[in-house]
């Protein structure tokens, strides 16, 4: 009988691997990889990043004592092995599903998840804060941040290194260098890391050096007064100084991140350095699954796939792709048009643009703040930049939008992808705040296409019709249901349906499709309804209110936060013009929205067609 899987299923917590032999741990890593591939092939998830850190995760839990020693995973998309080792094997089948395990670190899920994660480059700041707090409370445990080379392109990481570098904290930063962000990693830091990895002298001496180092006690790290004497001397010959040493960290590495014995030795050694350490670990993204190793970009975040063929199940077309195509078309005739991404070229549909217009394409790394100020600079000197960004990551650049772009009334286009609910990534990734946080800023126009055709025409308007910052927001995935007799118009709003009906559904973006489906349901029930679709969400065209005033019941639906959202503002303005009917607002409540399919969340929060139809049928209480 096969015993494969026995080791993993026997693990109730990290203490269960402490006494395993390296041979057993090697077997455990194989079992973990099989589990990762099996589960992600069903549920989707961040496969390649997780396959790359199996040995690192095992080594960390062998050497350190979580949760006392705290591990902070940057982004957290690579924490699946950590979950399997910290008592969550039995629930792992529910990964990323409604009410299931999160695909990121969630302190409420486990005491071993020391800090919430999802957005990039936070780990060193968080870990330094955790470490300082423990120090002040007389707790001498370790704090470990695990950060990828992609996440290291985010400015927050350097703010943290700058701050921590002069401390004596028991902070160990593990740099997981796989040369990849989602796409190939970019920028000077990627080049610096490549330099460290690839100095010819290093390769020539590599095996000799490793042997020499391993022969010495504690993996060759000879420590005097907290300084790694021998290693520093040796390394200086080989590489010169690293940026990390220049910023006050002890640098250890680079080491093979798939060699458990070396990893455990080096981690043990790092414990004895009484100041912040940066341990540079080299891994292969996708390690152990041929399709992911060959195409780590496709398996960074994947939908379900066939294990045997590596074929994924996802829709071929999306708003993102349409945006990319449309931008390419416009860039052909207007050489001022440029595209910016913060390390999300594939996700936002810019691969083709990058290919066709290399000089006008900028992947700035995971640096949303910089992207916006950089775009503002381009705009100031006459170019037409579009920054394509997920709604959730745009949150990073709030002040830059206000201070660097809007205040100067600069024409930058914010192509806001994943606006609205995103599904399985859950709380950290929902795009439910942008409409609320943008519509209070002067000099901004917010456009909300509901179809691919509208995206095309609004993108054109964004560049050539409106002044100042233009935010064009569209959802994750495909266009929804658009009735054949609906024709996009260039006005700031469109009425569709029976203009004499007493009931009016008002909405924008993706929910227009739900409203059209609701109208069909209502018509079948003999109830007439009209729909008002807002094309320009901000500034609101004042002429709309005199028209809306004539309906007796107005139902506003918004796939975003109710508090401070578009609907609240709309309702207020409607009452200002003397509306006497009923106004009811349906939007997301004041809570973080958990993971589930988008369809399920729309149903849960009363934003789908059935809920809309039911509300109209039942009538609603007036919201004062
Ligand atoms: C602020 C922010 N911007 C963008 C992302 C999207 N994102 C998630 S993982 C990732 C790449 C991270 O690369 P790296 O840290 O090297 O991890 P790897 O997947 O290579 O292990 C990006 C761009 C994010 N999570 N947060
Ligand atoms: C971890 C992360 O932030 C990204 O990988 C994100 O999960 C991508 O989401 P999409 O699947 O919507 O592109
Ligand atoms: Mg990486």
UniProtKB/TrEMBL annotation:
Signal peptide from the UniProt entry: none
Binding sites annotated in the UniProt record for Mg(2+): 149, 178
Amino-acid positions noted as binding thiamine diphosphate in the UniProt annotation, renumbered to this chain: 77, 118-120, 150-151, 178, 289, 368
UniProtKB keywords: Isoprene biosynthesis, Magnesium, Metal-binding, Thiamine biosynthesis, Thiamine pyrophosphate, Transferase
SUPFAM superfamilies according to UniProt: Thiamin diphosphate-binding fold (THDP-binding), TK C-terminal domain-like
EC number: 2.2.1.7
One GO CC term on file: cytosol
Cofactor binding description: Binds 1 thiamine pyrophosphate per subunit. Binds 1 Mg(2+) ion per subunit.
SMART domains: Transket_pyr
PANTHER family xref list: 1-D-DEOXYXYLULOSE 5-PHOSPHATE SYNTHASE-RELATED, 1-DEOXY-D-XYLULOSE-5-PHOSPHATE SYNTHASE, CHLOROPLASTIC
The protein's name in its UniProt record: 1-deoxy-D-xylulose-5-phosphate synthase
């Amino acid at each position: 009988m096969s015993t494969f899987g026995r080791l993993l299923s026997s693990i109730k917590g990290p203490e269960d691997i402490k006494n395993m032999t390296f041979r057993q741990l090697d077997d455990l890593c194989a079992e973990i990889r099989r589990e990762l591939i099996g589960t992600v092939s069903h549920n989707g998830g961040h496969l390649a990043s997780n396959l790359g850190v199996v040995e690192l995760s095992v080594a960390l839990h062998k050497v350190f004592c979580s949760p006392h020693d705290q591990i902070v995973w940057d982004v957290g998309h690579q924490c699946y092995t950590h979950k399997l080792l910290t008592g969550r094997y039995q629930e792992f089948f529910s990964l990323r599903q409604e009410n299931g395990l999160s695909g990121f670190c969630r302190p409420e899920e486990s005491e071993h998840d020391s800090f919430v994660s999802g957005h990039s480059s936070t780990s060193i700041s968080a870990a330094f804060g955790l470490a300082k707090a423990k120090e002040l409370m007389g707790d001498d445990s370790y704090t470990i941040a695990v950060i990828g080379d992609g996440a290291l392109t985010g400015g927050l990481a350097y703010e943290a290194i700058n701050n921590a570098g002069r401390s004596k904290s028991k902070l160990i930063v593990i740099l997981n260098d796989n040369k990849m962000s989602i796409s190939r990693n970019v920028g000077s830091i990627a080049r610096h890391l490549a330099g460290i990895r690839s100095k010819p002298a290093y390769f020539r001496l590599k095996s000799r050096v490793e042997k020499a180092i391993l022969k010495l006690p504690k993996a060759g790290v000879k420590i005097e007064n907290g300084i790694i004497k021998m290693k520093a001397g040796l390394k200086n010959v080989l590489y010169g100084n690293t940026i990390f040493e220049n910023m006050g960290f002890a640098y250890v590495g680079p080491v093979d991140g798939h060699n458990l014995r070396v990893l455990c030795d080096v981690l043990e050694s790092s414990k004895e350095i009484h100041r912040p350490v940066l341990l540079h670990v080299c891994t292969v993204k996708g390690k152990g699954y041929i399709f992911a190793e060959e195409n780590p970009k496709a398996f960074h975040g994947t939908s379900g796939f066939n294990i045997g063929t590596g074929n994924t199940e996802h829709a071929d077309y999306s708003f993102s792709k349409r945006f990319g195509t449309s931008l390419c078309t416009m860039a052909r005739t207007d050489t001022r048009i440029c595209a910016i991404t913060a390390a999300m070229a594939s996700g936002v549909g810019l691969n083709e643009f990058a290919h066709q217009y290399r000089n006008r394409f900028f992947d700035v790394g995971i640096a949303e703040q910089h992207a916006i100020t950089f775009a503002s600079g381009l705009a100031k000197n006459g170019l037409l930049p579009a920054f394509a960004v997920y709604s959730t990551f745009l949150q990073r650049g709030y002040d830059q939008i206000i201070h660097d772009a809007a205040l100067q009334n600069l024409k930058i286009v914010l192509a806001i992808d994943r606006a609205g609910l995103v599904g399985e990534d859950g709380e950290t990734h929902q795009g439910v705040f942008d409409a609320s946080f943008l519509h209070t800023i002067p000099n901004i126009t917010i456009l909300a296409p509901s179809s691919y055709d509208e995206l095309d025409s609004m993108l054109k308007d964004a560049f050539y019709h409106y002044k100042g910052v233009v935010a064009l927001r569209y959802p994750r995935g495909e266009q929804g249901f658009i009735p054949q007799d609906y024709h996009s118009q260039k006005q700031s709003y469109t009425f569709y349906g029976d203009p004499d009906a007493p009931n009016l559904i008002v909405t924008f973006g993706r929910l227009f499709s739900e409203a059209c489906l609701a109208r069909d349901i209502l018509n079948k029930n003999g109830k007439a309804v009209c729909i008002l679709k807002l094309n320009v969400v901000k500034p609101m065209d004042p002429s709309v209110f005199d028209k809306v005033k004539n309906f007796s019941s107005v139902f506003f639906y918004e796939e975003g936060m109710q508090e401070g959202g578009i609907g609240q503002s709309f309702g207020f303005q409607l009452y200002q013009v003397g509306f006497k009917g009923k106004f009811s607002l349906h939007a997301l409540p004041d809570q973080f929205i958990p993971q589930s399919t988008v369809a399920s969340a729309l149903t849960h929060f009363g934003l789908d067609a059935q809920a809309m139809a039911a509300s109209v049928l039942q009538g609603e209480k007036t919201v004062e």
